[in-house]
Design brief:
Number of strands: 7
Radius of gyration: 16 Å
Structural class: mainly beta
Order of helices and strands: EEEEEEE
Number of helices: 0
Amino acid sequence: YSIQIGEKLYNFPSASRAPPEAYFALCYAVPAHVDRSACRYSVSWTVNRESDATEDISPVLGSSFVDVTLRVSVRGAAGTVTAWVPTNLHGST
């Protein structure tokens, strides 16, 4: 398969198939878990993040990715790319 980024075309001639998974989510929240995956890493791209103006909570709370195994939290924000090992214990706030 191939991916074009700007003017550059990246070809993967020895790949047996296209990338194996893709998900789209809205208001995604999940408790800590592990995933079985054929890939060594998983990647999440947050393209937009909006907070309901009527909420009586801080707009920086919630929607954060947490890798429990590494004890790392990535605050949810537009334009954020997060990569992790799917067999690590992970979830969201």
